[in-house]
Write a structure and sequence with these properties.
Its EC number is 1.17.1.4. By secondary structure, the protein is α+β, with helices and mostly antiparallel strands. The chain has three domains: about 180 residues, Beta-grasp domain (Ubiquitin-like (UB roll), Roll), CATH 3.10.20; about 100 residues, Uridine Diphospho-n-acetylenolpyruvylglucosamine Reductase, domain 3; about 100 residues, CO dehydrogenase flavoprotein, C-terminal domain (Enolase-like, domain 1, 2-Layer Sandwich), CATH 3.30.390.50. The strands form five sheets. It has a five-stranded mixed sheet. Helix 10 runs antiparallel to helix 11, helix 15 runs antiparallel to helix 16 and helix 16 packs antiparallel against helix 17. The longest helix has 20 residues. The radius of gyration is 23 Å and the shape is globular. The mean pLDDT is about 95.
Length: about 475
Amino acid sequence: MIQFLLNQELRSEHALDPNLTVLNYLREHLGKSGTKEGCASGDCGACTVVVGELHSDEPGAERIRYRSLNACLTFVSSLHGKQLISVEDLKHQGQLHSVQQAMVECHGSQCGFCTPGFVMSLFALQKNSDAPDSQKAHEALAGNLCRCTGYRPILAAAEQACCNKPLDQFDSRQVETIARLKAIAPTQTGELNSGDKRCLVPLTVADLADLYDAYPQARLLAGGTDLALEVTQFHRTLPVMIYVGNIDEMKRIESFDDRLEIGAAAPLSDCYTALHQAYPDFGELLHRFASLQIRNQGTLGGNIGNASPIGDSPPLLIALGAQIVLCKGNTRRTLALEDYFIDYRVTARQDSEFIEKIIVPKGHALFRAYKVSKRLDDDISAVCAAFNLQIDNGVISDARVAFGGMAATPKRAKHCESVLIGATWNAATVEKACTALAEDFTPLSDFRASKEYRLLSAQNLLRKYFIELQTPHIETRVTAYV
């Protein structure tokens, strides 16, 4: 059984289909049709809901952290121990919520189909903001698409909603809600079981290892932003899933003098601060990683584990020399991330083995990252490049160059690196290294970019890296090219 709060109503579910998304649960099981389906792939934001969960900034100081999510990519099992808030829950005692009122007064709704999603993103923004901030508003709304081109009044509504925000029913019930969330905090493995399909929700790494050993055919579910597409887009059935999002050990982010250790189930939005502090370019790239709804849900471990050749984080992590800790039963092994990827969607992971955490070294001052995509926000890379050189007295003593979108896997450019290592860091060396990239990669053409565009972009990004190191005042990294 799993338990969660639907606003303030306690819901206990056991026999639901684990493949059921929160979107369809709201619409088809509860008759709450305010949440809309626009794309069923996490691109449009029409299905945005907000999930509240207990969070402690320090011991004994619990609060509720509200996060916007795409309901179309969220399986109901991930609600275990949390609070679900949909657009129907905002109006209270006949009065519109302040974010809804702001949308009305600023004329932020036109055809209205996308409006519930915008309202819920604004609600989460208001809960997480102390004052109007245009940058945060753009970030909060980047994952919501308005087909009527009504962004200006919606941004005005965001400013109004976050300016002198009034207390609402969620504020007045906060103590009560915290107590109720504590009362339903999971204490043992939860389960949804519809007879032919099941989802298990362990609470510890040890329990996960035992369950995965017992069900090696199970699909691991973290954020689900990729896995859920198999259900919503390809209409496949997932007979057995194991949800790892309630395992606190796998959500820890720890900073040491020489490294970061990031739990594989830590949401990308939680990873931002630590990665940005260590490597500003990594932080900038995360700002362009899909939308806030996706970053609130998707995990660093999942972005590695799905072995996509166009995942944004693996090239950066490979260039930094990152490692992953793989767990199977009581056994752990540490593997260089570059050795994890073998072929297209094929990895070195063994049966019943899972990524427990990612180890990211610190101290690489010349690390830079670049993303080439058709749109600045909420888009997949055509090419993602990461460069990490060590230069001593004008000579390159070490080089790690990695790309995504250029091969069947995220991959180091070994020929390029061999040209660089031991050479003088100058324009002539860079041109030789650019030529060597053609030996490292034979990219494919697809709807995102042609093979010629990809190769030329990769070469130009190396040239860009050289120019920026020569003129550090130029800050044009992580740039989109149209």
